[in-house]
Amino acid sequence: MARSIDPTPESVRQLAANLPSGTPVVMLNLLRFRAQAAYAADRQQPARSGREAYATYAAEVVPHLKQVGGTVIWQGEARHAFIAPPDERWDEVLLVEYPSKEAFLSMLKSPAYQEITFHRTAALEDARLIATIRQQ
Fold first, then answer.
1. Tens-binned pLDDT, residue by residue, of the chain (136 aa)
2. Domain, as residue range, for 107
């Protein structure tokens, strides 16, 4: 099974096309951490666990979230995949709310935000990021 860590250009296009404009979006994050963060050699980062690398990303993403009006609305430790394939496991679940898809996409496009994403990529073994909107 292919691992999914970073968005593809196609997934960004589909999000932009398939979500209504001006509607709040809650991103469901399912995260599985690497035992050891996998930084590229040119990043010159100290050895740390995937969870520690993600904590660095989480701390650095806060100003970017605030800038676009986003906020973490729930964070928790994943304990048991009750209805899931037998080998599926997640370490953490996050719900992050953005005022709109436009706000989320503007954060993704920000060079300052892009500069910190290497921590997220190094930290994660696998991930899901699912865009949700409230049912009418």
1. 456 788 999 999 999 999 999 999 999 999 999 999 999 999 899 999 999 999 999 999 999 999 999 999 999 999 999 999 988 999 999 999 999 999 999 999 999 999 999 999 999 999 999 999 998 7
2. 9-132
Cα separation, 116 vs 104, in Å, equals 16
Q: Both tokens of residue 112?
A: 């300052």
Strands 71-77 and 92-98: antiparallel
Residue 127, token pair as written in the block: 């991930």
Cα–Cα distance for residue pair 21/17, rounded to 1 Å: 9
Whether 60 contacts 130, CB under 8 Å: no
Query: How many domains, the chain?
Result: 1
Query: What is the pairing mode between strands 124-132 and 25-33?
Result: antiparallel
